[in-house]
Amino acid sequence: AYNNMFTKRLYPMLVELMTNVKQHAYHGAYGNMKPEWYVYVENCEYDIRFIFLDTGVGIPATIRKNWKERINDRVKGIIGGEVDDPIYIEAALRGEFRTETKQEHRGKGLPEIYSAIVSPQSRLNKLTIVAGHAECAVTKNGIEKRNYIGTTFEGTLFMWSFEKEVRND
């Protein structure tokens, strides 16, 4: 039989992703897509794979930036340099106080998802986030890679897998 203790991290993770869409992804009138999110789940032989797409403006656009970061992003946008989107996604995952709402109780969801991925007891595996000009991958060892991507990805794409429990029957 399956032990549902290991699936308990999935529910808050999915709820957090959906809540982020509602509270942050469409702040203001910007964004080219409808205010929606999509979930794809595939039952594979050894794991269950999840893809969650939020069609909002993306983490780098909604994270609170200090004045130096805002100026740096504008200058790089004008001269064509690499913006710091990968750093912003990493900051959100690590729980640096950068929530756009500036409320202390907010900004805890992505760090909780990060903790669920890196936890040795968790069956959640490699999380990849793509948003803006960034790709960030998290494994059991923490943030494994953080890449700048040349094309703007509108929205935020989350991909991860859930390792199936071995059956003893």
Note down, in words, how this protein is organized.
The chain has helices spanning 10-25, 59-62, 67-79, 85-94, 109-118; strands at 37-43, 47-54, 124-139, 142-163. The chain is α+β, with helices and mostly antiparallel strands and 169 residues long. A four-stranded antiparallel sheet has the order 1-2-4-3. The longest helix is centred in the N-terminal third of the chain and has 16 residues, at 10-25.
Describe, in short, the structure shown.
This protein has a 4-stranded antiparallel β-sheet. Helices cover 31% and strands 31% of the residues. It is built from 5 helices and 4 strands, in the order H-E-E-H-H-H-H-E-E.
Key phrases:
alpha+beta; 169 residues; 4-stranded antiparallel sheet; single chain; 4 strands; elongated; 31% strand
Major sheet summary line: 4 strands, antiparallel
Structural class of the helices, strands and pairings?
alpha+beta
Alpha-carbon distance between the two ends? 8 Å
Compressed to H and E, one letter per element, the order equals HEEHHHHEE
Number of strands: 4
Taking Cα atoms only, what radius of gyration do you get, to the nearest Å? 17 Å
The low-pLDDT segments are none
The residue-averaged pLDDT reads 79
Give the overall shape: elongated
**Please, how many helices?**
5
- Helical percentage: 25-40%
Output the strand order for the largest sheet.
1-2-4-3
Relative strand content: 25-35%
Annotate the secondary structure layout.
Blueprint: H1 10-25, E1 37-43, E2 47-54, H2 59-62, H3 67-79, H4 85-94, H5 109-118, E3 124-139, E4 142-163
Antiparallel strand pairs: 1-2, 2-4, 3-4
Helix pairs in contact: 1-5
